[in-house]
Structures are given as C-alpha cells and as structure tokens.
Amino acid sequence: MRREKPINADLPAAQAPAPPAEEPEVERPRPERPAPPAPEKEAKPTPVPTSLASPSPAPRRRRRVSLTPLLLLALVAIAIGFILAAVLAGGGGSRQQTGAAPTPAAPAAAEPPAEPQSAEALGYPAFATDNTTRVGGSDAVANAAAAALAVFPSTAADLRPPAVTLVDEGDWAGAIAASVLVAPPVRAPLLYSAAGEPPEATAEALAALEPAGENSAEGAAAFAVGSVAAPLEGKVTRVPAGDPAAEAAAISALRDRLFGAGPRHFVIAPGDAPEFAMPAAAWAARSGDPVLFAEGERLPAATAKALREHPGVPAFVLGPPSAIPAAVMREVGQIADPVKRVSGPDPVANAIAFARYSAAGFGWNVDDPGHGFVLARSNSPLDAGAASALSAAGTWGPLLLTDDAAKVPAELRSYFLDVKPGYTTNPTRAFYNHVWVIGDEEAIDVNQQAEVNALAELARIGGGE
Question: Buried (b) or exposed (e) across 286-304, using 16+ Cβ within 10 A?
C-alpha cells in the first residue's frame, strides 16, 4: 500500500515526549526500526518538493515532531539555489528551475549537440554508403562545383585541370553539348556561371581549381559558352551564344580543333525534350563524341551543316519518336551513314537503353557487373552537365535517371539487379558497382539512396569455403 507521510513521520513514539530543543537534528533522518526502508529511500531524494506539492494527511503527527526548523532550512536552501540558478541563467547559464521540481527542458534547448550525432550530420547515409556517394548540392551550380573538385581535388598542381568550361546556369542544352570538352585530351570540367558574376559555389571552385591553361586547351584557362563571367587570369576562349542547335554546332567545331581530329560518332539529342537528352552528356564526356540537337519536325540547319562537314560519320539518335520524329531521323540519314536510334519510351527507360547499347564502337555496353553509374533526377537537366566529369574519370559510368524522389523506379531496379555483382568464394576478387547520387534529399532522398546501395551491394551467389 502506498503511504504518503511528511518527513520524519515514522520516528518511534518514544521520542515524541522529548523536548524539541533536546532532539538531535542529525539523528531524525535515520531509520530506527526494522520496517523496510525502500519506500522511504524512494521519497527522500525529493522530500521538500513532495511535502510542498502534497500536504500531509496526518497534520497532528507533523506538529508532534516540531519540523519547522528543518522546513525553514530546506526552504532557505532551495531559495538560495533558485537565486543562484537565476544569476547563472542571466549570465549565460544553461539550467533554470521554475517550479516545485527541476525541469530538463532548458539544457536541451540551450545545448543542441545531440543533433550533430544524427546519421545525416555524420554523413551516413545522406552523404555516402558503402556503394554510393552523394554529390548533394542544393542546385546544379553546387553539384557542378562539387563534381569538378571530386575529379580534380586540386591539392597540388598536377591535380588541377588544364581548363574549365563555363556555361550559363540556365542553359541545359549548352551544358550537355559542352560536356564533350570534359573528355581527354582537353579534360575541362563544367561549371555554371552567369552574365554579371559567377555564383558563389562556382567562384569558390574556380579559386580551388586554378586552371592555368595547357597545350591540350590551346593555352586557354577557360572555355565560356555565351557571355558568362569568367573571372580568371588566363586566356578565355568563348563560344557564341545561340539556340541549342547553333551552340552545339559551335562547340562541336571547337572540339574538332582541340582534339585535332574529327569525331568517330555523332549523338543527335532532342533540343526540346531535355529529359531524353540528358544521358548524352555522360557519353560525350566519356567518349569525346559531340552532341548535336534536333528540334521540332525538321532538322535544324546548324545541325545539318555540322553533319555535312563530316561525311561518313555515323549518327545515333537518342530518344523515342515522340522526342525526335521519324521524319527528322530520315533527314539525318540523308547526311550521316549510318543512322540508328537508341531509345526508351520514357526518360528512365531511355537512359537504361543507352547504358545497355553497343554498336560499332558506340555505346556503354554496360550489361554486366563491375561498373560505375551516375544517378540523377529526370526533371533536372542541368545536373547532366554538372555530373558529366564523373563519367570521364574514376568508375566511368553512364548516367541513369530516376523520376521519383522517394523510390527506385521499377525498370531501374530491374536493371540494377541485372548488373548486380556477386561472388562465390572470395569477395576481394570480385567485381564491384558504385553509384554517384546527384542532388540533395529533395531530389533523391535517403530511402532511395539506401535502396540503390542495396541493389549495388556485392552478394554471395554460390557455396564454397
């Protein structure tokens, strides 16, 4: 049975007649009878708040033990404690008491260090898992800067790029076409800029990369598409701004000059369907094949001219007929020889089809384990150019797309399972997959990244010791 008693209410009755002045103060708290001490020990740590909050049901016995001196001392001690706490709080202290019992809320509000211990703050899995690495900028400008520094850490002169390519931060088509300059021998990672001054992330990346210009870049420290700011001390080679077809044709001509040879293939991408054009950026960076654009129901004049300057070079049309009509493909076929279509019915399937494709030395031909991949959202075409450097270094992987922030699309999941690595006896001799995840958690959240990580995980597929 629960007992609610005032302090010292269990003293033996034999002590009650003794004069209060002769009662030793230090002896009252000690139990002097064989009653179980557990209830009293549980009540003693907070005796005064208990007595203040719950008046004793036995006032007569309280008067007999003459408890007033003890209560006064206790109340004085608590008052002093409150004053000290208030002084400390006013001077920047983190603890504060405002009631009968101390509250732990004040330290939690004043000390948020528990939050940095979260998985997100530690970087797992929002930054990296064992099979994925996130380039988690809030926009394509930040992603481009991070990707460039991932490929070119720039901690020493030989770790810096010969040049960089600067594209307007709203020009997704120019960025996809300019990705060809990431390929060797130029190796100019792409950054986004603007007409007045570069965004902060780009300015910081430029300061770290310090491109000085080399022979492979004709001595240029930067290639600027349009009138974007290029705050560099070295030479800047500019490509005139224009519509997607005109810009791409100009970049293709610059590519021929820098490479010292014509292309082996052309990629014809849709200039008015960016979600289908995105995978071309990774391939251009990997292969050095230039990207040209088709728009509407007719082949643009600039694209036709660029094709005619390279007779006999095969062209590969990227995207379904809904993105590049059959009539346009026939126009390409009248110039290029041969012309073939690589496509899927939607952006996710289209990127997978390109990753699997292989013909006459063209295409990724990634149908087995042991590869790198880059994963981005299909509604962010600027990220295709931003991430292009990751497809031309390290694990050299194709760009794949997801159309959902929260989960892996079914067709992409199936593809990852098709190329999932495995081993029978020795995992250290196996092939491995790695996936770069582009964008913050609003673009691709942690749940999807974790799912991709599991799909890329090396699995045991056989017995043995």
Answer: bbbbbbbbbbeeebbebbb
